[in-house]
Amino acid sequence: MNKIKLPNVTLCAFGSEKYRNQQQKALDYSAKNIEFGAVKNIIVNTNSIDEWNRAVVFDLGDYIETDFALLIHPDGGIGEPELWRNEWLNYDFIGSPFPLPTDNFSYRDINGKIQRVGNSVSLRSKKLLQLPKKIEMEWKPFHGYYNEDGYICVNMRHIFEENGCKFAPFEEAVRFGRENPLPENKGLKTFIYHKTIGENACYPNFEKDNLLVTEMYNGQGLGNQLFCYVTTRVIALDKGYDFSIMNPEKFKGADFLNLDWGKKVTDGKGPEGGPPKKLPESINYYYSEKKITHPLNGSDIRLYDKDLVNILPNTKIDGMMQDEKYFEHRKIVIKEWLKVKTEYECNDYADKNICIINFRGGEYARHKDLYLNKKYWENTVSNMLKINKDLKFVVITDDIYEAKKFFPNYDVFHFNIAKDYVLIKNAYYLILSNSSFAWFPAWLSENLKYCITPKYWARHNISDGYWSCGYNITKGWMYQDRDGNLSDYATCLKEFREYQKNHSDYFNAKNRLIKQQSDKNIFLFLKKKISGLLSLKTKNFINRFIKI
Fold first, then answer.
1. Is residue 444 assigned to a domain?
2. Three-state secondary-structure class, residue 495
3. How many whole angstroms separate alpha carbon 305 and alpha carbon 292?
4. For the segment 494-525, what is each residue's pLDDT rounded down to a tens digit?
5. Is a pLDDT exceeding 90 seen at residue 191?
C-alpha cells in the first residue's frame, strides 16, 4: 500500500528508560505504512505506574509540536493502517471503547452517565494534551486508582468539555480501535489495537518475544531452502517479529552465502517438512502453508496463502513458500541478505553475447512429468536467438552426463554449487529448467536482460492450463509452452485466472485427491535411505536406472 501521510500527527510512545527498546520496536512497527509529522520515543523519569499516569496527563503535551499525538504502547499500536479515517481529526480524543461496567460506579462521569470511549492507546489533540497543565487541573485518584485514560475520558471529562474538547462518539471509537473483545467489535478489523488477546492476537506484543520460526531440512535443495528462509524472514520483518531458522547447519549454501539465522531456539523435533512432534521452547503454534492438490493427478497447485502472511507471533511455519508476492516488496533488502561472499564472485560467461542454460538432471531424469524434453530446450534456444542472433550457449548443470545428451555441441559444466549459482546470477541471458535452484540468482540478477522458463513450471509436460505450484509465475520472465510459443507474465496470469474460474473445484483446499496406488520399488526405497551418503555424481548415475 502507498504510505498514508499524516503531517499533523506525531506518533509517540511514552515511558521510562527500561521500556526504550520495546517502545522503539512498537514505533517502527506502527510507522511502517504511515508518514507521520514526527515519530518520538519519549523517555521520562517515572518509577511507578501512578507516576507514569500523571506524566501522561500533565507532561506528554510538552513533547508534541504537531496538532495531534497518536500515543501507542509496546503492547498496542497500529494494526490495520489502511483503515485510517481523516474524520477522526475532528475530535480531541478517540480511543478504543471501554466494556460496559458490571458494577454501579465504573466508567460513570460526574453526572452518572456511562462513558465508553477511552483507552490509553489513542489519538489526542494538542489542545487536550496541554489543557491539564494550562488550567492546573487537580490530579486525584478515582475509586482508589490513578488511570490517565479514565481521568480524561470519564472522571474529569466535564472539565475538558467545558474547555472546548470534543470526544469521539462510541460508533467511531469501535472503528478506531479494540482493547477488549466486545459484542460491538466482534469480527471487525480496527485501525489500532491494545492488548494482544482475542481477535488482537494476530498483532505483536513488544513486551514479550515475538518470534517466527522455520527449519532447514536435509531433503530440501538450495532453492527450496532459500524460499523458506526469505519468506519467513520477510513475514517476520513485516509483522515486527524476530525470526529464527532451526538447523542452519543443514543449509546447502553456507560456503558462499553468509546468512543471518536470527534468534536461536532450543528443543523442538519432528519429521522432515513437519508437522513437529514437539515445538521449540517459547513457540506456541504451528502452521503449514495451505497445500492444494490437483484432484486428478496429485500435482501441487497451491496458491498464495493469506493466512501465512497474517501468522500469529511465536509460530513455527513450514511449506514451499514460493509465491513472489510473499516477499517481492522487500527485494532491495533481500539482495543484501543473499549477497554472495566476495571470494566466490565470478564473472566467467557474464557476457552480453552468452546465454547460460541451466539444465536440471539428477533425480528429475526419472520423473516423466517433470523432466523437460529435448523439444523444450531446442525451442528455447531458437527463441533466444531471435532476441540476440549472436548468442553463444553454455550449459550449467547438476548432471553433466544427461546434459551432454541434449547439448552435444555446447560446453557443459558443473563446477560446484557456489560457482553454478554465481554464474546464473551474473548471466545476461538465461534459459531455465523448472528447478528452484536458479530462481533466486535469476530474480536477484542485476545483469539479466531476458529469461525463458517452462510454462506451467513443474507440470510443463502435462498441464492443460494449471501451474505447479499455482503461484510459480514470476514477473519479467518469459514462459514457453510445449509448442515453443512464448508468453509474458501478464498473459500467463490472465490465462491462469481464467483456468481457475473454469476449474474452481480444483482450487478448493478441501478437494479430494483420487488416490492412485503407487508401485513399491525397492530401488527407490534404498535410494531414499542412502542418498545422503552419496556424491552427486553417484546419485545421478543411480537415477539413470530408476525411471518412473
1. yes
2. helix
3. 10
4. 999 999 999 999 998 554 333 332 333 444 44
5. yes
Task: Phi first, then psi: give them for residue 440, nearest 5 degrees.
Answer: -70, -40
Looking at the predicted structure, is the pLDDT value of residue 398 above 70?
yes
Nearest in space to 381 (alpha carbons), one of 351, 347, 410, 418: 410
User: Three-state DSSP class for 548?
Assistant: coil
> Which residues, at least 6 apart from 200, have a Cβ–Cβ distance to it below 8 Å?
79, 178, 179, 193, 194
Q: Is the dihedral of CA 19, 20, 21, 25 positive or negative?
A: positive
With 0-12 CB in 10 A as exposed, 13-18 as middle and 19+ as buried, what is 481? middle
249 & 286 share domain: yes
pLDDT at 86 over 80: yes
Residue with grid cell 517438512, as numbered in its chain: 273
Residue 522 included in any domain: no
Answer yes or no: is 13 within a domain.
Answer: yes
- Answer yes or no: do 428 and 500 share one domain: yes
Residues 231 and 193 in one domain: no
Cell matching residue 434: 523448472
Residue 2 pLDDT class (50, 70, 90 cuts): confident
What pLDDT sits at residue 508? Answer: 80
pLDDT digits (tens, 9 = 90+) for 425-452: 999 999 999 999 999 999 999 999 999 9
Radius of gyration of the CA atoms of the chain, in A: 29
Among 299, 315, 337, which residue terminates a domain?
A: 337
- CA-CA distance, 26 to 79, in Å (whole number)? 11
Ranges assigned E (strand) in 16-67: 34-43
Any idea which of 38-42, 193-197, 296-300, 541-545 has the lowest mean pLDDT? Answer: 541-545
Q: Is residue 533 part of a domain?
A: no
- Which amino acid is it at 417? I
pTM of the model: 0.80
End residue of a domain, out of 200, 233, 255: 200
DSSP secondary structure of 140-191: --BTTB--HHHIIIIITHHHHHHTT--BPPHHHHHHHEESS--GGGTT---S
Pair 295, 158 in one domain: no
- CB count within 10 Å of CB 413 equals 17
Residue 216 pLDDT greater than 70, yes or no: yes
361 and 403 Cβ atoms separated by less than 8 Å: yes
